[in-house]
Amino acid sequence: MKKIFAILLLAFASSVCVLAVTPRTMRLDYFHTGNIAQETFSIDKVVLEPLPWPGNPRKTIDDTNFGKYLFEVRDQKTDQVLYSRGFASIYGEWITTDEPKTMTRTFSESLRFPAPDAPVKIILKGRDPKNIFRDLWTTAVDPKDMFIDRSVPATSGRLISIEKNGDPADKVDFLSSATATTQSSSQNSKRTRGG
């Protein structure tokens, strides 16, 4: 019995220690603007989200080589990569259409990462024609900056777990989104498919 109690106590103490060192989540909201000839970025705001970082603290560096874009969070003093993630964006999809040949658009995008303790630089990279990541934009973030939004949003109610299969740090998020169709678009679709 004492052995079981000791194991439970150790497990509880370990989880408390992990919770104590889990950083909050920082979010860099930015504007991604461009057309077929140019691509620019500008900061909208930096937000310190109220919840702890949900990612796996043991997998801070992305070595998958996935995504059209990649961002790195680097320590400003040492230039050490603290966090990195590859991703795809709506701008990256839009740029493959015909529209960027004739117009410029701006998209609002966000980068989320574990809140740093000291000033960092964020380096956003994109793939070149040879599929190699190249620096596109660099910006500095100081976690002590007075303009970081630290407000706690009003709660929309109690969180309801619909399906829980373990710690989010060790799981993959999956989003499924349905698209509503009108009767006329459904009929057009049937004609296109030959139905």
How does this structure look, described?
- By secondary structure, this protein is α+β, with helices and mostly antiparallel strands.
- The protein has a domain at 21-154: Peptidase M64, N-terminal domain (Immunoglobulin-like, Sandwich).
- It is built from 3 helices and 7 strands.
- The chain has helices at 2-21, 90-94, 183-193; strands at residues 24-34, 39-52, 69-75, 81-87, 105-114, 120-127, 133-141.
- The strands form 2 sheets. A 4-stranded antiparallel sheet has the order 4-3-6-7, with no helix packed on it. Strands 2-1-5 form a 3-stranded antiparallel sheet, with no helix packed on it.
- Strand 3 and strand 4 form a beta hairpin.
- The radius of gyration is 22 Å and the shape is globular.
- The N and C termini lie far apart (69 Å).
- Residues 5-9, 11-19 and 188-195 have low confidence and may be disordered.
